[in-house]
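Supplementary Methods. Inverse-folding protocol.

Structures were first reduced to a discrete structure-token string of length 415. This string, shown here, constituted the complete conditioning input.
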């Protein structure tokens, strides 16, 4: 919903404790935020998108846009003032951005998301001509059915690789498309999942050898499992899907990352312990086999969701949130946490709390991360305890080693 701005300084430093001081400023508006995505270029400039509400809840006409901001000083300041850029300009619900920045030549930015402005939910692409001079949003769905949660990854030659959950037919499937002309045209969709069940919520990562790696959830076995497939020929063909999760409970919310040595990291939410935990497995043989899954979050009384991964050399970072839907009275410490592995995913240290939401008012959720060329981890998340009623605002912090975090900064979508 739209909120009258209650902050004169749009950046709040809140340190290691909940936000305690607010300064009133009249005449400004900002929208509640969801689903951040973050990336970095070769010069360590940070690029950030969120889904932002642009209509009040009282209007009973849900409306959200994809908003964009960036930082040129390692996250100290952001160019969201006096107004944050609206990339989607949609008459409908633009939601769930994925973001990729080309790092090997001229900087170009690619943003995917889904939008229901034409009726059915479709996959959209926004691409920049150069740096952050963006073209108009384009519907890249090839049919009139549904296309959900598109995710984008770039290869070394600026091939634009996109996956989404597709419901053109009755059952869901994971499809892949590719562009070699900076997103102007795309190949026909390829069914990566080839499932007899419902395959959905894919994630994609391209490694240093331009191998395309895809993970998703699939209910063909009866319970939901995490599946994996890869392409070594620029998306012409994909390997037979391989099951990564092994537990008896539902496995959902896949995440995937690769490192410079070709190792593949996969994380997901697994209900095998009787409640939701963040599990992790890795492959060191190009996806031929995966290690036995391990419970990284280890919250015996928790409800873990939104696991996400990034790697840097032999370091693996896994972030997650505790708590799913707002108002879970049985769940305590509804915060964002980070776990780190210093040995390429062989083992993880104890999870450390990143956010400081006041849980009597709201939760922290939806982490997104990137590591810059210096090895500094930049992490953002949504905090719903400033406004309450699960209306979220975006917070940012960074860490050089995963154990000490910079002062939190609030990044508002000013509209």
């Amino acid at each position: 919903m739209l909120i009258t701005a209650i902050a004169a300084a749009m950046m709040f430093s809140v340190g290691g404790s909940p936000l305690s001081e607010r300064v009133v400023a009249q005449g400004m508006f900002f929208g509640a935020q969801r689903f951040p995505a973050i990336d970095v270029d070769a010069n360590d400039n940070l690029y950030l998108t969120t889904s932002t509400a642009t209509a009040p809840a009282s209007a009973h006409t849900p409306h959200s846009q994809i908003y964009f901001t960036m930082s040129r000083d390692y996250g100290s300041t952001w160019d969201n003032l006096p107004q944050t850029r609206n990339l989607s300009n949609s008459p409908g619900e633009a939601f769930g951005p994925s973001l990729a920045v080309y790092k090997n030549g001229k900087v170009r930015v690619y943003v995917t998301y889904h939008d229901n402005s034409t009726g059915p939910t479709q996959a959209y692409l926004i691409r920049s001509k150069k740096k952050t001079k963006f073209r108009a949003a384009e519907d890249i769905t090839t049919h009139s059915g549904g296309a959900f949660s598109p995710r984008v990854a770039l290869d070394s030659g600026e091939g634009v690789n996109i996956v989404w959950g597709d419901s053109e037919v009755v059952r869901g499937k994971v499809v892949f498309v590719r562009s070699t002309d900076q997103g102007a045209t795309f190949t026909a969709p390829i069914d990566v999942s080839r499932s007899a069940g419902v395959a959905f919520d894919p994630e994609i990562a391209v490694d240093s050898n331009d191998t395309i790696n895809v993970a998703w959830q699939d209910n063909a076995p009866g319970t939901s499992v995490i599946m994996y497939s890869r392409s070594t020929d620029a998306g012409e063909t994909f390997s037979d899907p391989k099951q990564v999760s092994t537990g008896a409970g539902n496995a959902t919310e896949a995440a995937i990352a690769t490192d410079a040595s070709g190792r593949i990291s996969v994380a997901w939410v697994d209900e095998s312990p009787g409640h939701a935990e963040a599990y992790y497995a890795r492959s060191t043989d190009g996806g031929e086999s995966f290690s036995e899954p391990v419970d990284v979050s280890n919250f015996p009384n928790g409800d873990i969701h939104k696991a996400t991964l990034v790697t840097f050399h032999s370091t693996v970072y896994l972030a997650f949130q505790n708590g799913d839907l707002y108002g879970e009275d049985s769940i305590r410490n509804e915060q964002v946490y980070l776990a780190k592995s210093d040995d390429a995913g062989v083992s993880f240290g104890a999870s450390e709390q990143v956010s400081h939401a006041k849980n009597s008012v709201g939760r922290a959720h939806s982490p997104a991360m990137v590591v810059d060329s210096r090895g500094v981890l930049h992490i953002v998340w949504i905090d719903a305890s400033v406004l309450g009623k699960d209306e979220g605002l975006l917070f940012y912090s960074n860490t050089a080693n995963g154990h000490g975090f910079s002062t939190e900064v609030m990044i508002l979508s000013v509209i």
